[in-house]
Hints:
Blueprint (H helix, E strand, L loop, with lengths): L1 H11 L1 E2 L2 E2 H15 L1 H8 L5 H23 L8 H22 L5 H7 L3 H12 L6 H20 L5 H28 L5 H22 L2 H7 L3 H29 L2 H4 L2 H15 L6 H17 L2
Antiparallel strand pairs: 1-2
Helix pairs in contact: 2-12, 2-14, 3-6, 3-12, 4-5, 4-10, 4-12, 5-9, 5-10, 6-14, 7-8, 7-9, 8-9, 8-15
Amino acid sequence: MEIKEKSIRRRDMEIGGVSLLSWLLLFVLALTWGSSYLLIKKGLVSFTPQQVACVRMSITSLCFLPFFLLYRKKVDWSKWKYLAVVGFVGSFFPALLFATAQTNISSSLTGVLSSFTPLATLVLGILFFRVGFSWMKIIGVLIGLAGTVWLLLIGREGGRWAWFGFGMLVVLACLFYGISTNVIKKHLQDIRSLTISAVSYSMVGIPALTYLAFSGFAGVFEKDEKAWTSLGYLSLLAVFGTVMGSLFYFELIKKTNALFASTVSYLTPMVAVLLGALDGETITVLHLAGMLMILVGVYVARQ
């Protein structure tokens, strides 16, 4: 009888065969990553895109520094070039591209365009990393690509072609994420996820801190009274959006599986749109249609 009651309690703590804790992690992760674009927007109030990216990377690297010191002797340093790719191509360059793009396009639309990341990962995997493909994957990629092009062509912020150019920076960031993900899958499978993050972010931390030291970053606080507020938003972005986001994602995969964890790619743009709307940004039915096309493409490609 006692065993039966425990079984009932365990089922009560699950939804769809997934624990409530895992669902909570999923929604916290979606909120964390979905809010990243709004936090970048707030950081740009006082700082340049380059400073925004370097502040984000610097704070993140400092947070991961204790783990780097702990695991540095256990790292296979013969794979340093792959770890560098993850750090620069998978983190630093996308952070710079997102910040630059958001000088001309809204945070909500940046979040919507970034939902192309899973498809970019798949395309690069098929083309360069010998990932198997099927017609469903090809169809999904084409649908998602059509949605991305649609969003780029209907943009009106700062002129259509100006918007297209800055929107392409987001697409390029998605491709960089795709390269990093495939490099991890192919070359770094035998290294712990936390170790990969600690080492890769430590690599980008040094040039990021160096840039801040010579970019006039300190002088911003003397000239702009909103600088400390912007720094606060960027600190939240680094600690929660990057550090905690990475840890939550790895924990979610551990508790469930990669397929369930990947569901966050559907929720993140929705959070970005909602927060952007609450901050006064305009999003139209045409933009939502483009987002839906991308998400349908992601869904089809994963079948």
